[in-house]
Write a structure and sequence with these properties.
single chain, alpha+beta, BirA Bifunctional Protein, domain 2, eight-stranded mixed beta sheet, five-stranded mixed β-barrel, 16 helices
Length: about 525
C-alpha cells in the first residue's frame, strides 16, 4: 500500500470512528436489526428499491373514509409505503400508524394474515422505519380506517431514533437545523411549507395570465445595486474579479425593458449581509416585476388584485388571523401618504412633519444610532419616523405613498413636487410586504442619484449603492415609462400562514455552523 493510500485509509477510519463513537445503545440495537434484515437474503436487504406504492393514504381515506364499517365491503388490494410513527404491538398482531407525506394511516399486521416473510420483517421493525405493505381496506371496531396487511417489508431502516413519539421535535433550534426530522414528525410544518408552494405557484400563474415573461438574471454582480443593502462578497478566480451576491435583480430586469421586453418578472433568490430576526434571513426569495407603459398607480391596482386573489383562490377565505389579529384580504385597501402616517401615529400636525428639527426631536428617544439622526436630511428623518412610529400599526393591507426622493434613488420624481417620488410600499401586519414605484428613466437624473449614493457610501453608509455606469448607459438608449415592484415572498407567506418567524416558512434557514465533534442524538 502506498503512503498516500495508507494515509487516506487511516483518515477514513478516523472519520468513521469519530461518527460511530457517539452511537447510543438504542442505535446499536437498530444496527443489529439491520444486519438481520440483510441476512434474510431479500434484494436490497434493509434498503430495498423495487417495492413501490400504487396509491396514497389520502386517496384511500378520500375513497373509503366516510363509509360505514359494513358499507366498505371487499376492496382491492392496495400497495402503500410510509414512515412508521407509532407501533402498538400485541404479540401476534400489531397496529402501525404510518405517514406517507399525504396523511397518517393505520396498518394492521397479523401473523395468520400477513405473509410469513412479511411478519418476520415486522418483528425487526423500529419506530421511524419506512415500510411497504399491501392489503385490503377495512374499518376496526372503533371505526378507524385501516389496511389489512397481507404482505409487508421494511424498505429503509431508520438506524437513528426519531424524537419521542408523543412530543416530537420541540426544540426550535433543532427543528430548523434538522428540518428533515421536523418535517417527518410535524404534519403542520409540512402543510405550511406546502402552502408556500401553492402561493408561489399562484403568483407565477397570475403573471403568466397577464402576459409577463419569466426571466432569469445573474446572481453574481460586479456592481451591487437595486436596493439599499450590504452585499455578500465573493471572488471569481479565473477572471480575478471581485463580485457581489445579488441584493436585488432590479437593474438587470430594467435593462430587459430597454431591450424591448415590455413585461418581465423573476422569482428570485437574493442575498443581503444583514442580521437575523423574526422577519429577516440573509438568503431570501422575492418576486420582482416590471411593466412598460405603466405607472405606480397601475401597480396599486395589480397588488390589491393579486393579494385578494391569494385569499380567495389559495386560502379560500377573505379574512385571515395572524395571532389574535384579524386581517381582511378582500379590499379595497387603505391608502395614505408617509407624512399622513407619521402625523397620525406621532400626534404631529401636517406642518410639524415637514420640520426636520421636530422629526429629529421625535427620534431622540429611539434606539436609532444618534449619528444617523444627526446627519440625516429631512427625507431620511421622515422615513425613520415612519419606520419607528407608524409602520407597526399598519395591520390591515395598506399602501403608503409619497416617499421622499432622498431615500428613493431609483424612483421617478413626482411631476408636481420633485421632493417626492411616485412610489408606494405595501404593508400588512405591520410589515413591509412590497415596494413599488414609477421607474426613473432619465439617465442624467439617475447618474446624479448614483453619485449621491456613492458619496453616502464613502461617508460610511455600508448599504448605499455603487455607481452602475452600464445601467446609466442603458438608460441613455431610452427606457419607456415603466413601473416596477418587488414583493417579499417569505414575509408574505408568513402573514398568509400565521407563521411567527421567517424560519417557519423557509425549508432550510441559515443557522450557526454545527460542531459535529460534539454530536448528540436527536
Amino acid at each position: 500500500m502506498s503512503n498516500l493510500t495508507e494515509s487516506g485509509s487511516i483518515m477514513k477510519q478516523k472519520h468513521v470512528e469519530r461518527w460511530t463513537s457517539q452511537f447510543s445503545e438504542q442505535m446499536t440495537v437498530r444496527l443489529d436489526k439491520r444486519t438481520k434484515l440483510e441476512e434474510m437474503g431479500q434484494p436490497g436487504g434493509a434498503y430495498k428499491n423495487h417495492l413501490k406504492p400504487d396509491t396514497t393514504f389520502k386517496n384511500i381515506f378520500d375513497r373509503y373514509g366516510a363509509l360505514e364499517k359494513d358499507a366498505i365491503g371487499q376492496t382491492p388490494d392496495f400497495k402503500v409505503a410510509g414512515r412508521v410513527l407509532m407501533v402498538r404491538d400485541f404479540g401476534k398482531a400489531a397496529f402501525l400508524t404510518c405517514d406517507d407525506g399525504t396523511q397518517r394511516f393505520q396498518l394492521y399486521v397479523k401473523k395468520d394474515i400477513t405473509s410469513e416473510v412479511g411478519f418476520a420483517q415486522y418483528k425487526l421493525l423500529d419506530y421511524g422505519d419506512i415500510v411497504w405493505a399491501s392489503g385490503d381496506v377495512f374499518k376496526t371496531m372503533k371505526g378507524e380506517l385501516s389496511l389489512n396487511v397481507k404482505d409487508f417489508s421494511i424498505i429503509s431502516k431508520s438506524t437513528r431514533p426519531l424524537p419521542e413519539k408523543f412530543h416530537g421535535l420541540t426544540d426550535p433550534e433543532l427543528r430548523y437545523r434538522m428540518r428533515y426530522v421536523d418535517l417527518a414528525m410535524n404534519p403542520e410544518v409540512r402543510e405550511t411549507l406546502r402552502k408556500r408552494s401553492e402561493i408561489v405557484r399562484y403568483i407565477r400563474e397570475y403573471f403568466y395570465k397577464l402576459d409577463f415573461l419569466e426571466v432569469e438574471t445573474p446572481m453574481m454582480h460586479s456592481v451591487a445595486g437595486g436596493a439599499a443593502a450590504k452585499p455578500f462578497k465573493t471572488h471569481h478566480n479565473a477572471l480575478d474579479m471581485a463580485l457581489s451576491m445579488r441584493i436585488a435583480p432590479e437593474l438587470h430586469l430594467k435593462r430587459l425593458i430597454v431591450g424591448g421586453f415590455n413585461k418581465v418578472f423573476e422569482m428570485n433568490r437574493c442575498f443581503r449581509n444583514e442580521g437575523l430576526s423574526l422577519k429577516h434571513n440573509p438568503e431570501f426569495t422575492s418576486i420582482e416585476f416590471y411593466w412598460a407603459y405603466a405607472n405606480f398607480e397601475d401597480l396599486i391596482q395589480l397588488t390589491e388584485d393579486l393579494i385578494s386573489g391569494l385569499g380567495r383562490d389559495v386560502l379560500k377565505k377573505e379574512t385571515i388571523m395572524f395571532g389574535d389579529k384579524e386581517i381582511n384580504l378582500k379590499g379595497p385597501y387603505a391608502r395614505m401618504t408617509m407624512r399622513e402616517a407619521v402625523a397620525k401615529h406621532t400626534s404631529s400636525t401636517a406642518t410639524q412633519v415637514m420640520d426636520a428639527s421636530h422629526l429629529r426631536n421625535l427620534l431622540k428617544e429611539s434606539e436609532i444610532d444618534p449619528k444617523t439622526i444627526k446627519n440625516a436630511g429631512w427625507g431620511k428623518l421622515l422615513t425613520l419616523c415612519f419606520e419607528e412610529f407608524a409602520e407597526k400599526h399598519l395591520i390591515q393591507p395598506t399602501f403608503i405613498t409619497e416617499y421622499p426622493t432622498e431615500v428613493s434613488p431609483l424612483s421617478r420624481r413626482n411631476d408636481s413636487n420633485p421632493d417626492f417620488v411616485d412610489r408606494f410600499e405595501f404593508f400588512m401586519n405591520g410589515w413591509e410586504i412590497g415596494n413599488a414605484f414609477s421607474e426613473l428613466n432619465n439617465p442624467t437624473d439617475q447618474l446624479d442619484r448614483f453619485a449621491e449614493q456613492a458619496m453616502a457610501k464613502e461617508a460610511g453608509d455600508e448599504e448605499a449603492s455603487d455607481v452602475d455606469y452600464d445601467y446609466v448607459r442603458a438608460l441613455e438608449y431610452g427606457m419607456p415609462p415603466t413601473a416596477g415592484q418587488g414583493i417579499g415572498i417569505d414575509r408574505l407567506v408568513m402573514v398568509l400562514t400565521d407563521s411567527a418567524t421567517i424560519r417557519d416558512v423557509i425549508l432550510f434557514p441559515l443557522l450557526k455552523k454545527e460542531d459535529f465533534g460534539q454530536e448528540s442524538e436527536a
